[in-house]
Amino acid sequence: MQRKELAYRRSDGLDVSLLWDPGDNSLAVLVVDERLGVTLELPVRGESPLDVFYHPFAVASRRGAPIAA
Questions:
Q1: Model pLDDT for residues 33-49, shown as the tens digit of each residue
Q2: How many folded domains does the chain comprise?
């Protein structure tokens, strides 16, 4: 089953989407940086979905996720 976009924002070359998978009821935030050609996907795990949506790089940093330079 295809994921559904619940929220979207675009700013300064960054596209950020909050996605819901109805198959397993999971949420994830997808960040696409067009300038660098980098994509980051963060599953929502215990955090507020909107916190992850509005602050994906802070969440990635707390998790120790690599962020491309």
A1: 999 898 999 999 999 99
A2: 1
